Amino acid sequence: MVGSVLPGRPGNLTPDQEAKLQELWTATLRVFGVLAPNTPEDADGIQFTSGTATSEPKAKKKSQSMFRRQKDEDNSKTAADQDDKYGQSKAFQQVLATQNPENLRKAFWSMVKHDHPDGLLLRFLRARKWDVHNALVMLIATMNWRMQEVHVDDDIMKKGEAQAMQDTSNSNATIKKEGHDFLAQLKLGKSFLHGTDKEGRPMCFVRVRLHRQGEQSETSLERYTVYTIETARLLLASHVDTAAIVFDMTGFSMANMDYAPVKFMIKCFEANYPESLGVVLVHKSPWIFHSIWNIIKGWLDPVVAKKVHFTKNIEELEQFIEKSHIIKELGGDDPWEYSYVEPKADENQTMSDETTTNQLLEERAKVVKEYESTTQAWISDAQNSKTLQQKRNDLAERLRAGYWQLDRYVRARSLYDRTGMIRGSEGGVIQYYGKPETPKGPKPLIASPQHGLVATEPRADDVD
């Protein structure tokens, strides 16, 4: 049901799930250096010093710890091997040995953006079946991936489309090509964000026929993938925290098949954006794709594979999406068509305003610090947990509202800002469908940050 709080989310936790969340917060705050470890040397080989945590293997102790799995060591290693196809356990240990805790803390709060901090941690807990240690490993590995490997916030989202356009005129041939290849995918509309499915989930359409192996560099493909996923995150809210992907296979041929970007996309969702996929619709796939699917399915986590559905026609697609929300291109009633609007010369001017940027960052840092201290109190003071949880929710709302004030100072404008879908200046309101004055098509649907999907006043052509 659209607008209802799903299980395992903030506001709908069992007592055991809340306890697991508190455990993960304790572990996370220790890694971030906010909480001191119980002992200079914690379990599971995590050794704390005044500066960083190192990962030299140490003998197991019988005492319980936040960083210790409650299993036999050999069985634990076997489970880890089976559940760690992206090498996150090794990455976790390397991060603890080499990264400054404060840098990891900054990467975490940068990733939070407008999300409820509990909501973000709960994604990792659900993805790891409420195993606190495994969730922590996944979380810290993700922070390192964002900060050190792909530079999500300090490069991809900060520079955005405008920088890519500038790069197309760069004298350096490599930089010029990367800028051109990134923009080419946007101009083609290889994938785009538009509308919602029956569950209110924002939809990403991928027109597979527009991809041809070798036309764009692998780097630009990966950059474009992360850019699209990260932009889609801005459309999510506490009541709708997953997205729908529609792979339009119309006109697919073997010339469109490219395994490398498929593997990268799978890794992103399984390793770095856990619990972000609600449903995947593969629409009108030809018979030649069946053998390819058998290969791809073998790469997928079984939980993710169960979210994939094949639709052959408009009637089957309507099981997931209202016909009024299915674009005309796929046989639906929504007349919307993709069209790329290029960056404006002055659209990112606010990003050069260092005074305001620093002021907003300082204000956010104060709220973050208060949230962290209130979280510590919430964990330790069981008698006042409800009062403290409400305070934490109030602080989370301040973080959400504060992010949208900060957004235009730290994130370059995207196509979806220029076309009015993302309305940061209105507190993060999302307008999924058209403009109120649009004469035809589905009436505009606004995603209120507090109240979920809200239809605007009906137009004359909507009334019988």
Record the SSE blueprint.
Blueprint: H1 15-31, E1 47-48, E2 53-54, H2 73-82, H3 88-98, H4 101-112, H5 117-127, H6 132-149, H7 152-167, H8 173-188, E3 191-196, E4 202-207, H9 218-233, E5 243-248, H10 259-272, E6 277-283, H11 289-299, H12 302-305, E7 308-311, H13 314-317, H14 354-380, H15 385-410, H16 415-418, E8 422-423, E9 429-431, E10 445-448, E11 452-455
Helix pairs in contact: 1-5, 1-6, 1-14, 3-6, 4-6, 5-6, 7-8, 7-9, 8-9, 9-10, 14-15
Total beta strands: 11
Strand order of the largest sheet: 3-4-5-6-7
Q: Roughly how many Å is the radius of gyration?
A: 23 Å
* Distance from first to last alpha carbon: 26 Å
What's the pLDDT, averaged over the residues?
Answer: 87
Order of helices and strands: HEEHHHHHHHEEHEHEHHEHHHHEEEE
The outline comes out as: globular
Q: Biggest sheet, open or closed, and with what strands and sense?
A: 5 strands, mixed
Number of helices: 16
User: Roughly what fraction of the amino acids lie in strands?
Assistant: 5-15%
Based on secondary structure, the structural category is alpha/beta
